[in-house]
Design goal:
The complex is a heterodimer of chains A (662) and B (133). By secondary structure, chain A is α/β, with parallel strands linked by helices. Chain A is 28% helix and 25% strand. The two termini of chain A are 23 Å apart. Classes of the chains: A alpha/beta (662), B mainly alpha (133). Chain A binds chain B through residues 343, 389, 393-395, 397-399, 432, 458-463, 474-476, 478, 481, 483, and chain B through 23, 25-29, 31-34, 37-38, 43, 45-46, 73, 77-81.
Chain lengths: 662, 133
């Protein structure tokens, strides 16, 4: 039999203003198991906690029921109090008579009645509480970062600087990601490569960082502290140890017609290539789909020219198996293809570009050497039209429902860069709303409109018409309420940001939840923005939602700190409120395994001693380190063998009975 | 017309069009896409806004009702799936369903034929479907 102490908190006037504290305290004394009841102005204060500790000592309490605010607020506080008084911390129950009662009711009488009922339910549950002891598990002191863009690089650098080993797995042959493709960055207009490439080199040279480029994650198993990962390092056809990066193979390669991914298809590259001059690592890769040697068996010029004999056509994909304590997802984004919006003539006219293509064209190292020209006739454009919100802010059937966040700013940047370089070009921007929340962002946009004479027009473009080589832009000026047409030589589409393709498969592998747009979901939208709800998985950069570079870097650092919080521990203390299977009752149906969002349930064949009757049965087993205590299995289990410690079916039914008791 | 009668029309328009003008984000793509916009007194995006705001009376008298080609370019291109043409259609129905409000009358046919002797019969039939009850 428990010896329960009930403690009712006033919370100043927060609770006492609507709830009759005395009445609740008095009726608590009559509840089964209660040997002591008391009230206090602020239970969470030092005085309140001391009162609890004294009561435990004087009355030999075995459990504490606190009628106060939400357990989210002070459950931890009172568990610590219980522990300090020598009780098991899980012998504490909270009745939320503030958020669930006093704050939402005005009538004192009914609020008091409800508080009494909530108190009763907590005590009924507490009568069935058992001491719980959290398990411990070890931590592999190594982090995996998936994605080698600015987000992944920054997270890896921060973790490595703190003294832990990090592996970066990057799908493409070089790290650097989208930021490497950019020309200038807003709102300062500093050169993207100038600030990024030193970081790429830092990452490559860091003693604690290993790069796995041209690699992908094939398989993930395990749990926080001890993930087991298979990384597929795709065959480069170039021996990484022997290659000295001289580039002779690239010069010699007779294939020159493969589309450059780095230049968004605006330039051509050879079949053996490095994506761009500052690529890290500076080791070429053979694109086997375009290589003559792989297509016909002839050629092999690169192999002949290579002074270090680094070319290896026989190279196979290599599988690397590693253990990690934490995994940070930094998979980034891709720009949405505007082809589905036929009215913009993308793919039909060479003079309609996406903003990333335009970014490459403006870049001094880009396909035109930084010279702005019409790809249809190589002439300098006289008039450029930028169209915002292409694919963003749309109905789900018509595009992306969200605002892509960065387009207003990069369009202002593009407009300004054009005007800076070619003041004689007319620049028009069609917008719906210009969104510039950010430090020095609105000033930046205003500079484009005021100092650079960029013509901002409120309204969307209806369609483009190809009129003898010029693009007639047909639109509506909403402020004038007039239809307008502008003849443009170049049209740039600010396409929506889209989560990287294939990322859903990765999310499934990591059992990390994702939203309908394939962005990873954070554990709490405000208070845990860089953690996935799955323990040990962290989110860095655009994989969580559209954001610009400063935000990405800030989030990357935050993800690193959260990851370090785990890496720096020798043991992880688990949550003891986890599922438990009663093997005698389990019928082996797999229902629990199918609903478990964390992959914490496994089935094993086991000899079961059922009241002296020994036989082999297939029974569910919960991996205590993976289980997060969501309780889905306890609901799904048809035989009643799954139970959640601390929230057992009996405890919950006792609460319901107490609430229904009149 | 009384305020309650106008409101009834608004409700009816929303019901038969199945469109929701509150989804509009005022981007003006419908007006920009409209090939008949140059002849309209109320542009498609204003039309949507007027229905949203409950300003129905001027819509009932609007030239837009008869100038809309029902080409559905606005419906096709509206990023928010607001369906402006369906709203125009619904208001047009609200007008022509009233007694004596047929926009196209049988007596008008000779004039068409005079205008263009080759006018396809199908066009006249379609025009009757659109402009008369």
């Amino acid at each position: 039999m428990q010896r329960i102490g009930a403690f009712v908190c006033w919370c100043g006037s927060n609770i006492a203003g609507t709830v009759d504290i005395d009445a609740v305290t008095k009726s608590a004394a009559d509840e089964p198991g209660v040997v002591y009841s008391a009230e206090y102005q602020y239970m969470c204060s030092e005085g309140g906690q001391l009162a609890i500790r004294r009561a435990v000592e004087e009355h030999g309490l075995t459990g504490i029921a606190v009628c106060a605010c939400s357990p989210r607020m002070h459950e931890t506080t009172f568990r610590k109090t219980a522990a300090a008084a020598g009780l098991n911390p899980y012998m504490v129950e909270i009745a939320n008579i503030r958020e669930h009662c006093s704050w939402i009711h005005k009538n004192r009488e009914s609020a008091t009645e409800k508080a009494t009922i909530l108190m009763r339910a907590a005590i009924a549950k507490l009568n069935l509480n058992k001491p719980l002891f959290p398990g411990e598990s070890g931590v592999v002191k190594r982090a995996l970062v998936i994605g080698g863009g600015i987000a992944g690089i920054q997270t890896a650098l921060d973790i490595a600087d703190a003294g832990y080993e990090v592996d970066i797995v990057e799908k493409s042959p070089t790290i650097g990601g989208r930021m490497a493709q950019l020309d200038k960055t807003f709102p300062t207009l500093d050169c993207s490569a100038c600030i990024l490439t030193p970081k790429m080199v830092d990452a490559a040279q860091h003693d604690n960082i290993s790069l796995y480029t041209y690699s992908e994650v094939d398989e993930v198993s395990g749990y926080v502290g001890s993930f087991s990962v298979k990384i597929r390092q795709k065959a480069r056809s170039v021996n990484r140890e022997l290659c000295n990066g001289c580039g002779d193979c690239i010069t010699k390669c007779p294939v020159k017609k493969a589309n450059s991914e780095f230049d968004e298809g605006l330039s051509k590259r050879s079949a053996i290539y490095v994506p761009f001059a500052q690529a890290v690592p500076n080791i070429p890769v053979v694109d086997r789909e375009n290589c003559t040697r792989f297509k016909t068996g002839k050629c092999g010029l690169c192999e002949k020219i290579c002074g270090t004999k680094a070319i290896d056509f026989e190279q196979q994909d290599e599988i690397i198996e590693r253990e990690y304590g934490v995994i940070i997802v930094a998979t980034g984004f891709k720009p949405l293809s505007p082809e589905r919006y036929g009215e913009y003539l993308y793919g039909q006219s060479p003079d309609v570009l996406t903003s990333l293509e335009f970014e490459r064209m403006m870049n001094a190292a880009g396909p035109t050497g930084g010279v702005l020209k019409r790809l249809s006739n190589n002439e300098k454009p006289k008039s450029i039209v930028f169209i915002q919100c292409v694919g963003s802010r749309a109905d789900a059937k018509k595009g992306k429902t969200y605002c892509s966040k960065i387009c207003c700013m990069y369009t202002a940047k593009h407009a300004m860069l054009v005007k800076e370089k070619y003041p004689d070009i007319d620049v028009h921007v069609f917008y719906i709303d210009v969104r510039t929340p950010g430090k020095n962002f609105d000033e930046f946009y205003r500079r484009a409109a005021e100092q650079y004479d960029v013509n901002y027009i409120k309204g969307m473009v209806g369609k483009l018409a190809d009129e003898d080589g010029r693009l007639r832009v047909i639109a509506s000026d909403l402020l004038d309420g007039k239809q307008i047409t502008i003849d443009a030589d170049l049209v740039v589409l600010a396409t929506a940001v889209e989560a990287s393709p294939d990322v859903r498969a990765l999310g499934t592998m990591l059992t990390a939840s994702m939203d309908q747009n394939n962005f990873f979901t954070e554990a709490h939208p405000k208070l845990r923005p860089v953690e996935s709800p799955t323990a040990g998985i962290f989110l860095s950069g655009v994989c969580q939602g559209p954001k610009d570079i400063p935000e990405t870097v800030a989030q990357a650092g935050a993800a690193a700190v959260k990851a370090l919080g785990i890496l720096s521990k020798n043991k992880l203390i688990g949550n003891p409120c986890i599922a438990e299977s009663n093997e005698l009752l389990c019928n082996g149906c797999s229902c629990c395994e199918n609903v478990c969002p964390y992959g914490a349930i496994e089935y094993t064949e086991k000899e079961i001693n059922d009241h002296g009757n020994r036989n082999n049965r297939r029974v569910a087993q919960v991996n205590e380190a993976i289980c997060q205590g969501c309780g889905a299995c306890t609901v799904a289990c048809p035989s009643g063998s799954m139970d959640l410690k601390g929230f057992t079916n009996r405890q919950i039914m006792a609460e319901v009975d107490a609430i229904c008791r009149t | 017309m009384s305020a309650s009668a106008l409101n009834d029309i608004r409700e009816e328009v929303l019901r038969i069009s199945g469109a929701n003008p509150k989804k509009c984000m005022s981007c003006g793509k419908c007006s920009a896409s409209c090939p008949a916009s140059f002849e309209m007194d109320i542009l498609p995006h204003h039309f949507v806004k007027n229905i949203r705001d409950g300003n129905i009376e001027n819509l009932l008298k609007s030239k837009t009702l008869w100038k809309c080609l029902s080409c559905f370019a606005c419906v096709e291109r509206c990023p928010r799936a607001v369906e402006p043409a369906n709203l125009v259609e619904a208001v047009r129905l609200a007008v022509i369903r009233k007694k004596g409000e047929n926009y196209l009358k049988v007596d008008d046919i000779p004039e068409f034929i005079e205008l263009d002797n080759e006018i396809p019969q199908q066009l006249i039939v379609s025009a009757f479907r659109k402009y008369s009850k």
